[in-house]
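$ ./design --mode recover --in tokens.txt
reading tokens...
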């Protein structure tokens, strides 16, 4: 099956190779608040969302949700041990850095440290989300 819009092709036919398992484990790096907001979004998205336009249904198609009825035919779950929060002190240090380039370097370094820790842990996810504060 070939479709010019990959979103609709995936929705109608599923992935080329189905995921070997019934859960895609998701990790999250961010502040305590952005991690909690990500969890809330995942909970809200489980049941899916209706499309936003009846006039142009391909522009904003319905979202099938994060349960087994989605195009990937598996659930998406945030791993408890793979939700790593940057400390408030580190976030404040980065946000108070007057040099923009240096602030970006500090932020990237902190995020990469958390992603490495996640990768090396026993709760290694399949996918990681960076939820910026």
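writing sequence...
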């Amino acid at each position: 099956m070939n479709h010019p819009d990959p979103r609709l092709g995936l929705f109608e036919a599923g992935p080329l190779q189905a995921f070997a398992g019934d859960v895609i484990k998701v990790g999250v790096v961010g502040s305590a608040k952005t991690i909690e907001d990500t969890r809330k979004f995942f909970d809200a998205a489980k049941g899916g969302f209706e499309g936003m336009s009846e006039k142009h249904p391909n522009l904003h198609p319905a979202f099938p949700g994060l349960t087994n009825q989605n195009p990937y035919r598996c659930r998406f779950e945030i791993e408890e041990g793979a939700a790593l929060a940057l400390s408030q002190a580190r976030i404040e240090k980065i946000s108070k850095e007057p040099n923009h380039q240096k602030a970006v370097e500090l932020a990237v370094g902190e995020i990469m440290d958390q992603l490495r820790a996640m990768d090396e842990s026993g709760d290694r996810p399949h996918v990681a989300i960076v939820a910026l504060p």
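exit 0
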